[in-house]
Amino acid sequence: MGSHSKAAVAVAAHAALDTGVHGVGVSTVCSETEADGKITTHKGDASAHHDAPTIQASETLRNFNDAQKTTIQEVYTKLKEVLLGGDLPVCRLKFDLRAVDNPTAYARVYKNGGAIGIEQTAVTPSWSTKSEDFSNWVAGDLIQIYGKRTGTQTCYVRNMRLCYDLVVPVTNQDP
After folding, report:
1. Less Cβ crowding at N or C end of the chain, within 10 Å?
2. Is the pLDDT confidence value at 19 over 80?
3. Total number of domains in the chain
4. Cβ atoms of residues 150 and 78 within 8 Å
5. Residues 38, 44, 45, 48: is their CA dihedral positive or negative?
């Protein structure tokens, strides 16, 4: 087919009025006002939207900072810290605590340098796991564990763990 024949076919394809623009039928193109109305209608249609996944505190380990840290300070001293790279609406934070050489070791969860957790204690050299649920953490928050001692013992902290589940809503569609 010569170059004049190809051009004639291309012009003929666009000559039909029902072809519209670039093959989109004229009947599918609507005015800006009509488009705005369709968008508003969709926005108000609850069935057209899906529930977003949610996060809930759980026993599922998602992030950890397991290194063992110690202090012999008698005032709260930062032992462990993680920087959140994203929002975490709810989370279970766990860590292990123990005291060596009597009488008591203390540890507490902090956020951005301020105490938010309850004061946890240990009075034996055996490890004990502490667990608390927290909420409203956002990207950029520093989550920390501070520890201190009384008497002559050493405060040991290890296994800082963030535990949560991503829950995706599902609807059974069995026939």
Report:
1. C
2. no
3. 2
4. no
5. positive
